[in-house]
Design brief:
By secondary structure, the chain is α+β, with helices and mostly antiparallel strands. The protein has helices spanning 103-110, 133-147, 154-171, 186-198, 206-213, 217-228, 232-250, 255-261, 267-278, 282-289, and strands spanning 11-16, 27-32, 35-37, 41-42, 47-53, 56-62, 65-71, 75-79, 83-84, 86-90, 94-100, 127-131. The strands form three sheets. A six-stranded antiparallel sheet has the order 1-2-11-5-8-12, covered by helices on one side. A four-stranded antiparallel sheet has the order 3-10-6-7, with no helix packed on it. A two-stranded antiparallel sheet has the order 4-9. α5 packs across α6 (217-228) and α8 packs across α9. It is globular and about 70 Å long. The termini are far apart.
Length: 290
């Protein structure tokens, strides 16, 4: 939380999404040691921190009121751009996953979906300190994908980023409200299913599928989930596995060749996904066919 872009002395970067094929918000894991930052302001970026290691008391002052929170894994901190927090003190060493919430990227994703259009700083409080299992799982899944070489492709990064912002700016604005499902028409669903099958080997993106449905990415993601019962990236993965089962049962092509044709980055990535969805390896699936 600094007035300048200089990396503080108590900061060590463990990994970052920069330089990878990750298509969602910039994300990194950073190691902080005990430090006191008097009178600082986090200026340059709206950011979400998730504690993933260590335990420490964090104290800070907001509007002349001193606050404190004990940092344990699962505690997150949302800090809006230009939010002024002074006398920030971290008493012990802590590891954070940090995610940059790019407002321009959000608004390009949601396009004409004004239900989430972000034009001011009064949607949610300028800073939030809380623990939330959903945010923890989502950010950890982002980390796992990046450290795994972004093997799930562009669609997961974009979908996960939209899901996080939708949740954050919905849940923390007000208590969750029941909404009517907003589903795709049967015609649009059929068009999407055919498009996905025809482009199954491609690294499909959320924006690409949203354009096919003629919806904003965020609205499309919500409608798709309400219609199909799973997010777009999961549906694409399940479709690939179903096609793989057909190809394995009807041809004698090598598993690696089938994996690459269906858009998997490697045979091992294919095997892991196949086992997760079917409960068995591709080799075991073939043996059971005999």
């Amino acid at each position: 939380m600094s007035n300048s872009s200089k990396i503080p002395d108590n900061f060590t970067q463990c990994w970052t999404s920069e330089g990878t094929s990750w298509s969602g918000f910039k994300i990194s894991q950073n190691h902080f040691v005990a430090n006191h930052l008097p009178g600082k302001r986090y200026r340059e970026q709206t950011r979400l921190f998730l504690t993933v290691g260590g335990n420490s008391m964090l104290t800070w002052t907001d509007s002349r009121k001193q606050l404190q929170k004990f940092c344990t894994p699962g505690v997150f901190f949302y800090v809006e751009k230009d939010c002024e927090l002074s006398d920030v003190t971290l008493e012990s060493t802590v590891d954070f996953i940090e995610l940059d919430i790019d407002l321009n990227k959000i608004n390009s994703w949601i396009k004409d979906d004004f239900s989430l259009k972000i034009t001011s700083s009064n949607i949610i409080p300028s800073h939030i300190v809380d623990s939330d299992p959903y945010i923890t799982r989502l950010m950890q899944s982002m980390r796992n994908d990046i450290l795994g070489g972004c093997s799930t492709g562009r669609l997961f990064g974009e979908t996960a980023s939209v899901a996080l912002v939708s949740y954050l700016y919905g849940f923390y604005k007000q208590a969750p409200s029941k909404r009517k499902p907003n589903k795709l028409s049967p015609f649009k669903r059929k068009i999407l299913e055919e498009y996905i099958k025809s482009n199954i080997s491609s690294d499909l993106s959320l924006s690409e599928l949203a354009n096919v449905a003629e919806l904003s990415p965020r609205h499309f993601s919500r409608c798709f989930n309400d219609t199909v019962g799973m997010p777009p990236h999961q549906y694409v993965l399940h479709t690939r596995i179903e096609l793989a089962k057909i190809m394995l049962s009807r041809t004698k092509r090598p598993i690696t060749e089938i994996a690459l044709e269906l858009g998997f980055s490697s045979a091992s990535h294919f095997s892991d996904a196949f086992r997760k969805i079917t409960g068995m390896s591709p080799t075991k699936f073939l043996m059971d066919l005999l």
